[in-house]
Amino acid sequence: MASEPGTQSRVMFQAPDKAEEAAQRKLGKLTVKYNRKDLQRRLDIEEWIDGQLHLLFDCEEEEMPELEIDIDELLELPDEGQRSRLEELLQECGKPKEDFINGLLYRIKGLRKMSGPLKK
């Protein structure tokens, strides 16, 4: 394709908007504000819960009933509310569940809710 002598193609570059640049930087900083020890403790508790549920329901992953134990939800409840919520979630379990409930309540003591980044 031949260009006519009087017209030239131009390539123009635009500098990124300052507000857009600042927003991208802020997003990157949010992930570092979580306390690593709290995250590891939470992960350990979640793995413990998973293992204990397999023992309680005595079945493979695919056969396990749909059950979600939300640690943050439990942390919002008073002590007796936590126990009641766990009993409600585990009502389909035929095995004794008191040891599991007591163990979980003991493990979540002192945990903080993780809905947002923690302040240092």
From TrEMBL:
Q: Which GO terms of type biological process are on file?
A: innate immune response
Family as reported in the entry's similarity comment: Belongs to the PP1 inhibitor family.
The entry's protein name is Protein phosphatase 1 regulatory inhibitor subunit 14D
Write down a Pfam family by its short name. Answer: PP1_inhibitor
Name the GO cellular-component terms.
Answer: cytoplasm
| Organism of this sequence | Fundulus heteroclitus (Killifish)
Q: Which PANTHER family does this UniProt record tie to the protein?
A: PROTEIN PHOSPHATASE 1 INHIBITOR POTENTIATED BY PROTEIN KINASE C (PTHR16188), PROTEIN PHOSPHATASE 1 REGULATORY SUBUNIT 14B (PTHR16188:SF19)
GO MF terms held by the record = protein serine/threonine phosphatase inhibitor activity
Highest classification ranks of the organism: Eukaryota, Metazoa, Chordata, Craniata, Vertebrata
Keyword annotations from UniProtKB, A to Z: Acetylation, Phosphoprotein, Protein phosphatase inhibitor
